[in-house]
Amino acid sequence: MRYMLMRKADAATEEGVLPSQELLQAMGDYNERMIRAGVFVTGDGLRPSREGCRIAFRDGEPRVTEGPFSATDELLAGYTVLEVDSLEEAVEWARDWPREDGDVTLELRRYFTFEDFAPGAGLQRHAAQARMPRGLQVHLSFPGSCREAMAFYAEVTGGHLEAALTYGETPAAKDVPPEWHDRIAHASLNVRGHRLMGADMPGDGDRPPQGAQLFLDYDDVDQAAQVFQRLAEGGQVLMPFEATFWARGFGMVSDRFGVQWMVATPSDQCP
C-alpha cells in the first residue's frame, strides 16, 4: 500500500523560513531510517504558496490564480511517499516524525490501486506503464577488489554503501577457499535509489564488463568534471571530458578497477 504523508503548512513555512541545520539533520536521519527499511519512495519540501498558483477549470477553461493563499492550515509544506503494508504501519512512521520540527500537523492519505477501478481500455493504458520494473540495477564482478572498489565508488558518488557481505558470512563459505572468506559475496551501493551491486568472483568467474559503461548524469558541469577526474585516477581516459554537440561536458574513462564510466552534463536541448 502506498501512502502520502503530508506535512501541513504553517505561518513559518508560508513565510519561507528555512529549516535549521538541526532539523535538516533530523529529517535526513528520519529519511535514512525509512530508506533502510524499504518504505521510503520519495519526499520533498514545498516553497511558500506565494511562489505558486492555482489552476481552476470553469466551463472547460483554465483560470490561473497566483498565490499566496489563505487558510494556511489547508496548504502543504512538504510530503513523503511511503510503501507499507497497512495504515497502521504508515501511522507508526508518522509518529516517528522528527520532534525538532516543533508543533506540526501531518495527514496520511492512501493511493488508489488498479483494483479500485473497473476494467477498460483506459485502465489498460495505465497497467502497461506499471509493467515497468521497480528499478534497473547494475552488477559488477571483481577478482578480489570489490571492497576497495565499492568504497571508492561510494566516496565519489556520495552514495550509501548499504551492504558488504563476505563469503564467510554466508552459507557459501563452505564452497570457497578459506582465504576467500573475507572477500565480498554481495555489496550494494545505493545512489538515489539506484543500486550498483558487486561481488568478488573466485576462479574464472570474474568477467570484466565489455561493451558496457556506467553513466553518471550531473546538472553541474564542474561537479561532473571533478567526478570524472576522480574516476580517472590510476585509470585510463578513453575520451577527455569536454563540451560536445549534445552536452556541456562529457567524457569516458576506465577506472583503476577496469570499470568503464561515462560522465556527462547534458545540455538543456538534449534530454
TrEMBL record:
The Glyoxalase/fosfomycin resistance/dioxygenase domain covers 144-263
Q: Which Pfam families match?
A: Glyoxalase (PF00903), YCII (PF03795)
Q: Which CDD domains match?
A: PhnB_like
Q: Which residue intervals define the domain YCII-related in the entry?
A: 1-99
- The residue stretches assigned to a coiled coil in this entry are none
Q: Which domain of life is it from?
A: Bacteria
Family affiliation: Belongs to the YciI family.
Q: What is this protein called?
A: PhnB-like protein
- Where does this protein come from, organism-wise? Halomonas salina
